[in-house]
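Handout, section B. The chain below has 46 residues.
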Amino acid sequence: MQSLGSLFTCDAAQCLFQSEELWVEKCPLLERVIETSKETSKLGNS
């Protein structure tokens, strides 16, 4: 099975600073909610 990876890039997550809650339920393929900036760099160089 392929993993989902991340919901948000590091840059997009900066827009979430006013959010009070984020619910993710029953998502076994999700590796992390926010990807690291290193992962963003790898995606841009592909």
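Note. The chain has a mean pLDDT of 81. Compare this with the example in section A.
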